[in-house]
């Protein structure tokens, strides 16, 4: 019996153990079904040190990206634009219609992507900006004024709030670089690294070109090592690289009074500008030589194709530039300089931010004369009906020196000078129009449309914290015209700038402009 009892106990125990085991299996199965699946690891943005500071890997790719840009506000004294002197329009007229100051705000964004490939780095770069600039008023000729257009938006809508509040959208760069090629909108290969700014913010220095907002191009750059490179480029010539191709036969008194020696008669694109450039960029500084070929492609003598047209004429431009670093005056001090010579390619000396017509008013000491005026015009070529194109020659230089007082303050001194020279045949065309249209008092003997343009400036910058800079840039600008002393012209009434029909003395003029800027880079 004892044996029987033991057997019964053991049997019941086994049943209990099996039951509990089954229950545990059932419970564990139910709990496993309720548990969440293991989450995938989060892909955090990783620093990409391969291409320099500020780059990060795009998650899930081998492409690195860098975001950058700036926010800038300007206040320009004695100018109707940013940052041009008062050399034409209502600003040059020096009437109550011109602005005592003009303000501008701009937000800029750039996106730089790079991917390492077996052909080298594949790069794309895009830069855009939103800009708002104050406009000004022009005369209506009826005792009323009209608020001028901003960014193609006519008043009064340009003063109202909206998507961009009447401002403008700019595409400054948009290019691809791969295996030595640059394709798209980028700074011209003719330009030097400091473009228009050897030490300045001022936009109007002759002595070389800039194309700071880019120009469409197809470029190949060969890298020979040790900082030596050579580039060969075909770039768009219409958007930036042409000043004026003047048909003097169609000149009007109103146009001549504003510095236009004819009507602009540029035809459609025929060929791009061809650029070659050699650069040596090393620790001591930089040397660069640039050469450009520019086709002057005129339209028609008259209103239709039956009137004929002048044949194309190729112009050219050359530039030499030098930058000297590590000079004895202090760490980081720099001297930048360049000089240019052009024939039929004036934009390569008078950069794309500069005007091509000048009408600067001032006083006069001549009796019976209303005021003084400086008139000048810039072209690539001029012609009259039935003639060939006469190419315009220009030459000039610009330079700047920047001295760092300490880590927070620096000062720059800069200047530029440019000369415009017309051939004897071109002068005969222009002077004929001047005598007939404006009654030039000195006649053919006193007529000379050549001129010099110069600027000299001083800028001081304060950077209290990294990437935040406040600057004050003052520039003196001078127009030196070559008409005979005491010459006068009779100008028609110009309602838009509130100038009456009267006799004006042709004489040299000058102006001073001040730019106050705050800029935060990021």
TrEMBL record:
<keyword id="KW-0626">Porin</keyword>
<comment type="function">
    <text>Forms passive diffusion pores that allow small molecular weight hydrophilic materials across the outer membrane.</text>
</comment>
<keyword id="KW-1134">Transmembrane beta strand</keyword>
<keyword id="KW-0406">Ion transport</keyword>
<keyword id="KW-0812">Transmembrane</keyword>
<keyword id="KW-0813">Transport</keyword>
<keyword id="KW-0472">Membrane</keyword>
<dbReference type="InterPro" id="IPR003684">
    <property type="entry name" value="Porin_alphabac"/>
</dbReference>
<dbReference type="Pfam" id="PF02530">
    <property type="entry name" value="Porin_2"/>
</dbReference>
<feature type="signal peptide">
    <location>
        <begin position="1"/>
        <end position="32"/>
    </location>
</feature>
<keyword id="KW-0998">Cell outer membrane</keyword>
<comment type="similarity">
    <text>Belongs to the alphaproteobacteria porin family.</text>
</comment>
<protein>
    <recommendedName>
        <fullName>Porin</fullName>
    </recommendedName>
</protein>
<keyword id="KW-0732">Signal</keyword>
């Amino acid at each position: 019996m004892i044996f029987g009892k033991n057997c019964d106990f053991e049997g019941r125990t086994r049943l209990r153990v099996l039951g509990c085991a089954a229950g545990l299996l059932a419970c564990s199965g139910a709990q496993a079904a309720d548990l969440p699946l293991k989450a995938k690891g989060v892909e955090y943005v990783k620093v990409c040190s391969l291409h320099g500071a500020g780059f990060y890997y795009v998650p899930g790719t081998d492409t690195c990206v860098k975001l950058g840009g700036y926010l800038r506000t300007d206040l320009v004294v004695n100018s109707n634009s940013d940052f041009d002197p008062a050399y034409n329009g209502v600003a040059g007229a020096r009437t109550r219609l011109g602005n005592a100051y003009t303000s501008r705000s701009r937000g800029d964004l750039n996106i730089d992507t790079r991917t390492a490939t077996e052909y080298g780095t594949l790069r794309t770069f895009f830069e855009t900006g939103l800009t708002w600039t104050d406009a000004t008023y022009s005369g209506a000729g009826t005792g009323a004024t009209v608020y001028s257009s901003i960014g193609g938006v006519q008043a009064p809508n340009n003063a109202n709030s909206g998507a961009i509040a009447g401002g403008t959208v700019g595409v400054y760069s948009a290019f691809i670089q791969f295996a030595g090629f640059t394709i798209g909108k980028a700074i011209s290969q003719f330009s030097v690294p400091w473009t228009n700014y050897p030490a300045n913010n001022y936009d109007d220095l002759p002595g070389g070109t800039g194309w700071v907002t880019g120009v469409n191009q197809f470029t190949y750059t060969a890298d020979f090592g040790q900082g030596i490179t050579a580039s060969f480029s075909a770039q768009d010539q219409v958007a930036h690289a042409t000043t004026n191709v003047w048909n003097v036969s169609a000149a009007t008194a109103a146009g001549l009074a504003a510095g236009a020696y004819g009507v602009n008669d540029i035809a459609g694109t025929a060929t791009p500008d061809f650029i070659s450039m050699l650069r040596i960029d090393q620790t001591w500084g930089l040397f660069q030589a640039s050469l450009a070929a520019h086709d002057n492609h005129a339209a028609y003598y008259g209103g239709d194709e039956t009137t004929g047209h002048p044949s194309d004429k190729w112009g050219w431009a050359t530039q030499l530039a030098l930058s000297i670093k590590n000079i004895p005056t202090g760490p980081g001090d720099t001297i930048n300089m360049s000089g240019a010579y052009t024939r039929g390619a004036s934009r390569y000396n008078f950069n794309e931010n500069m005007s091509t017509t000048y009408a600067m008013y001032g006083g006069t000491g001549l009796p019976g004369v209303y005021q003084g005026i400086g008139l000048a015009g810039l072209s690539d070529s001029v012609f009259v009906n039935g003639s060939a194109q006469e190419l315009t020659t220009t030459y000039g230089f610009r330079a700047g020196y920047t001295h760092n007082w300490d880590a927070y303050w620096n000062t720059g001194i800069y200047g530029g000078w440019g000369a415009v020279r017309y051939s004897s045949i071109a002068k005969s065309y222009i002077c004929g129009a001047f005598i007939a249209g404006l009654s030039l008092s000195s006649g053919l003997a006193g007529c000379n449309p050549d001129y010099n343009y110069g600027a000299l400036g001083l800028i001081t910058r304060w950077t209290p914290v990294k990437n935040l800079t406040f600057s004050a840039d003052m520039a003196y600008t001078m127009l030196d015209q070559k008409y005979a002393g005491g010459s006068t012209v009779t100008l028609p009434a110009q309602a838009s700038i509130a100038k009456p029909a009267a006799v004006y003395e042709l004489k040299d003029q000058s102006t001073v402009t001040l730019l106050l800027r705050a800029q935060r880079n990021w």
